[in-house]
Amino acid sequence: MTTDRTTLITFLGRVPRDDHGYRKTRYDFGDGQSADEFAFFGWALQRQIKPQNIVILGTIGSMWDHLFEGDFNLGAAAEHQREALMGAVDAQSVTQHQLDELAPALAAHLNCRVRLGIVPYAYDGVAADLLVQMAADVFETDIVHPDVTHGLRHLPMLALLSALYIRITKRATIAGIWYGAYDCDTGRGQAHNLAGIMRIADSLQALSSFDKDGDYGVFMPLLEQSGASPQVVEALKKASYYENLLNVGQATGQVRQALRALETEAPGLAPDVAPLLPTIQRRLQWVDEDRQFEKQLALATHALERRDYLRATLYAYEAVITRVCQIQSAKIESFEEREGARKVYEKQSEGLPEYQDYKLLKHLRNEVAHGTRGSTAEVQRALLNELVMYELLKRLLDAIRQGRLPSHEDGV
After folding, report:
1. What whole-number distance in Å separates Cα of residue 124 and Cα of residue 158?
2. pLDDT tens track for 271-298
3. Nearest of 48, 6, 52, 51 to residue 172 by alpha carbon
């Protein structure tokens, strides 16, 4: 089901009360407007964002009675059920049935959908159940506002996880993660929107995704949201495209352009994305290598680290051929000259010790590129066993790095 409604998900805690009930606070949302006092921050937030759907979650001992006796005057609505609820709150024995009976009275007063839910204390293995329950009333494309002000101390952590869970599973927008902070010195409260935490979580998720597949594209939405210029985003987009095609020369230029622009723009970017920048710069340090084959070798090494065996093999083989071209003064970017240099190298190095490693790398490259069965026993073992593949590629990359493949003294 697709909607554009606003959903508020809030928690109800349990605090001491006196003869006057629960303490009320006036919360400042930073808009310069006066606000009424509320004991439950969720009602102040409800007035601010005007949701069409409200989900209030609490334990069997939360101050459920206050929803019907404190901030609102519901008159005689559900009076008998409200009296029974007060006793259940005192005994910490509120039932879901009681809340289901009372929810319509709140919904009628607020003119929106209301669900009241009993949740476990969410220790140990039941935390996942709470995440599912928080997402149960969210529709695809909802605009969701989790509120972590009240409730048990560990619930804010679960609320953040639930925000990520809701966004991924329901494709909803998390417009705010709210916290009402009470200042005991002034007796007033300040409403804080902690939605920036989501961008930090997005940054960590993007880094994890990049380490998995090496795609710069995961950084682009974050950089756009943080205020990066279109030039940065476009340069990274092109760099990702060229690198996927093994076109290191073109990728190098685009990465350098993006890094220069990021260095200039960094002071003006949103603070919550700042921790991402040094890591992006470190991930792109391969452009600092002096020679093209060293860049290809660095990219092959990074690919192997993230278990991207196809790209590690392709870049390793291209690094060898590029090095051969440099030794022979052949044009690296010319297919014909690369092929000519390769054939000369194969002819002149056939009797050298390094040639066995070269043949092994060449066969491995052909098999992973075409998805065929290994043409030699060693390649076949690598294709059938990940550990063997990893160790084989690591050894071949070390040989390239140390100048043994191709040898600097092979006379090519």
Report:
1. 12
2. 767 777 887 888 888 999 999 999 999 9
3. 6
Q: Which conformational region is residue 116 in: left (phi greater than 0), alpha (psi within -120 to 50 degrees), or beta?
A: beta
Quote the tokens at residue 179.
């916290």
Query: Which H helix or E strand runs over 382?
Result: helix 377-384
Contacts of 404 (CB under 8 A, 6+ apart): 354, 357
Q: How many residues does the chain have?
A: 412
CATH class for domain 293-401?
mainly alpha
Measured distance CA(384)–CA(374) in Å, rounded: 9
Q: How far is CA 408 from CA 199, 320, 323, 329, 400, in A?
A: 48, 12, 10, 14, 10
183, β-bridge pairs = 188
Structure tokens at 113: 């959908």
Say which residue the tokens 């795609």 belong to.
215
Report whether 172 contacts 140 (CB < 8 A).
yes
Question: What CATH fold (topology level) applies to the domain 6-194?
Answer: Rossmann fold (3.40.50)
Q: 256: closest CA among 275, 276, 281, 227?
A: 281
* Contact (Cβ atoms closer than 8 angstroms) between residue 103 and residue 110: no
SS3 state of residue 192: strand
- For residue 1, what pLDDT band results from cuts at 50, 70 and 90? very low
Joined tokens for residue 183: 């200042």
Task: Specify the residue for token string 């996942």.
Answer: 128
What single-letter amino acid sits at 395? R
Tens digit of pLDDT for each residue in 218-264? Answer: 888 888 888 889 999 999 999 989 988 999 999 999 999 999 998 89
In the chain the first and final C-alpha atoms are separated, in Å, by 67
Euclidean distance between CA atoms 84 and 82, whole angstroms: 5
